[in-house]
Write a structure and sequence with these properties.
- 87% of the residues lie in helices and 0% in strands.
- It is mostly helical.
Length: 120
Amino acid sequence: MAAQHSQGIQTLLEAEKEAAKIVQQARQYRVQKLKDARTEASKEIDEYKKVKEEEFKAVESSHAGITSSAQSAVDKETEVKLQQITDSYNQNKDKVVKKLLDRVVLVKPELHRNLTKVES
């Protein structure tokens, strides 16, 4: 009976070892599948990124002419306005200086309009 009992325990230990091997193989299989999935996802991301970059470059190149023409139009308009401001400055600077000097030099002393005469 002891031999039979010992053989039953031995069979259980072998079954336990076999189960541990199966569990270890399942873990390895799961880890490998995760690695494969990450690699595949990385490839898909890279392909998608490449496609979107090409689309962006195509849109950018198609709008490059529009942007440069708009920039040149804005530059021309700015030049015209700056020239107008410069011309106006050159025409009116003497008048402005004369008005400022007249205000500073020619002072007419008079009472303020809010000042009331105090009766004594």
